[in-house]
Amino acid sequence: MDRAQKEKVVEELGQIFESSGVVVVAHYEGLTVADMQGLRAQMREVGGSVRVAKNKLAKIALEGQPCASIGAYLTGMTVLAYSEDPVAAAKVSEAFAKSNDKFVILGGAMGSAALDPAGVKAVASMPSREELIAQVVSCIGAPASAIAGAIGAPGSNIAGILSTLEEREAA
Question: Are strands 22-27 and 104-110 parallel, antiparallel or unpaired?
């Protein structure tokens, strides 16, 4: 890799560190190509990505970034899993680590906050952006349906009374 290619990689990694909601660093030594392809596919499904980069170049890209504290995790065979959604990459990484013991989560970063393996696990247990939106929408919709039911209740009560009166007259 010549100097121009290295500069391009550093620039790409810098943009990843800057724009990602979460970055997870893990060791992947011993994973098969099929396992890595599976991880990449799972990450793509949630809008994330997986990147293997030279640790030295990643450390250079981390300089001046809010998540520069993850540089300590960049030793050995490391892989970066990242996504704009602050939860997606952590969820996929955690699930993949449970099913594959050769994938070991070292830590990560969420914005400027450094995460240890327990922190990544905590982030993974949080609801995703879509789940939070669904919860908010259901909270907003619940009072509206209660109001509609309350407005319709007197009408149905009157209809019930009228049908009872009609049945009495018929009898």
Answer: antiparallel
